[in-house]
Amino acid sequence: QLQESGPGLVKTSETLSLTCTVSGGAISSYWWNWVRQPPGKGPEWIGHIYFSGSTNYNPSLKSRVTISLAPSKSQFSLTLSSVTAADTAVYYCASSNYYDSKLDYWGQGALVTVSS
Amino acid sequence: QSVLTQPPSASGTPGQTVTISCSGSSSNIGIKSVNWYQQFPGTAPQLLIYRNIHRPSGVPDRFSGSKSGTSASLAISGLQSEDEAVYYCAAWDDSLNGRVFGGGTKLTVL
Lengths: 116, 110
Hints:
The complex is a heterodimer.
Chain A (H helix, E strand, L loop, with lengths): L1 E4 L3 E3 L4 E7 L8 E7 L6 E7 L4 E3 L7 E6 L4 E6 L8 E8 L8 E2 L3 E6 L1
Parallel strand pairs in A: 2-11
Antiparallel strand pairs in A: 1-3, 3-8, 4-5, 4-9, 5-6, 7-8, 9-10, 9-11
Chain B lengths: L8 E4 L5 E6 L11 E5 L6 E4 L13 E6 L2 E6 L8 E9 L4 E4 L3 E5 L1
Parallel strand pairs in B: 1-9
Antiparallel strand pairs in B: 2-6, 3-4, 3-7, 5-6, 7-8, 7-9
């Protein structure tokens, strides 16, 4: 089971930070993903991290994104800097067995609104 | 503009078969597996089909997937009112080195 947490409102130009808590299974041996979905639009993959610390990011967001892992807390986190209104979306965390395989478990999502 | 192309809408009457297409390229669908997700309003996408043709446990066999070349399809037979949802295809893209999604197809059961 995955659960997102973090502020629901972020000011323009500031940094968005979210955490995903993993329960019911080990955080090792999986790829941990962040996906976002702007209102009325399709999902957009943000990036992922492997338990070894290896990461991949969406090229369109790469300069602003960091995904990190805290295995002792069974958590992984997302930071997105210099946000604008275009970053307003529901943010989901999700897991996959391999870097390119299905996203089989998803969190319920966290709505983050960016406003001045 | 999504990397994978889906029709924005599809419709059918109860009992009919509906097919949703997903078009990609040689860097994604052409060389990687396609997964399909079903999303109801206000909920997270849920895995419907994985590795082109496989259904997770609990998904009715009315849902089936296929892939040919750089395109994939999702077929829903014996359409039911509870199938009304938005359907997304997704795959890994080797050129972008990341996951890509289709824009989604909203299915309406008339």
